[in-house]
Amino acid sequence: MFNFHVGIPGIVPDLLHSIVKAGILNGKNSPSILPSKLWQEQFRGLVNTKQKRAVFDVAAWGAAEAIIADLSAFGTVAVSQHALLGCPEDCFLKRKVLPYTDARIARTSELFAAVPLAFHLTISSQFDYLCTIMNRLPEGKAFSQPSIVPSWSELVLRIRAAAPDRQIVVWDFEKPEKAALAFLISLLDARDTALIEALVAHLSVTIKRPELPINSREIHRIPHDQIERLDAQYDLDLQVISKIEGVSLILPDSFPEEFHL
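-> structure tokens emitted (261 positions)
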């Protein structure tokens, strides 16, 4: 089983790969995490290309399928490419939210056709997400005023249409201290008590890092009515996503306290 975290870009971007850097899975045969370097060298070009399947490099496609077959021997394989669908700016400044989504999801699903695959999408409120993007900008760089209010539910519907036979799991990360552990346990299919305890110890010092205070001048550039629309859209999205057939919506308050950090 492959559990694939595809975005939204910038929400918990390094969470899975930080486990690799910390050596938490060293010496364990399962679960496995697909290395970022391997993805970049063998998979990214095939998934991100604008060419049609018929003109792909047949050898490269076959090599990627062989790697997937080898990795499937581990049982559960977690993959995280948080920017697979695009960059954060593509959520607010494009005519269509994350316009590469449809083609990349379809191509990824096709590439992993021989194995079970679930797509995991992490979301947070549009306004909080915008603030996070602004916080991460290099000093002196401004973010253009958002031209659209993105809809995560519409994005999920597009993913559903691009990969109709795949499981889709949407994680509400409004409260990461409640959602992060369950998210990792799900991606890794972690059942070993020692591994879960190691994840708790790791997350307790990584997930609660506060963002820098938002530059109030940047926020003041956004019309108040647009800020209200950003906040309202998230509530609407959660309602719609919860009713989409074939999609699981995971809310942070649904986890018992022992899963909270």
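The mean pLDDT is 88.
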